[in-house]
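Schema walk-through. Below, the input block comes first and the output block second. Nothing else is stored per chain. Lengths vary across the set, and this one has 78 residues.
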Amino acid sequence: MASNIIIYTQDECPPCTFVKNYLSEHDIEYTEKNIKNAQYRNEMINYDAFATPFILLKGEPMYSVDMDKINSTLNIEN
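--- output ---
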């Protein structure tokens, strides 16, 4: 499922860490792209995203962390 979730992150970003930990706790694979890499930063900007975490959830951009959407899209029950 890693290709279904891409998280653009940066160092020392508590919301980034929260989302990554949450997905890991639910055994959901993801691809992390740290924007200190210029290529990843440019990819994120191409989506008109200027804050992290920026998430591509099954190809759909998520500009802010929406846990309800993450849970429903990935069938996570709490």
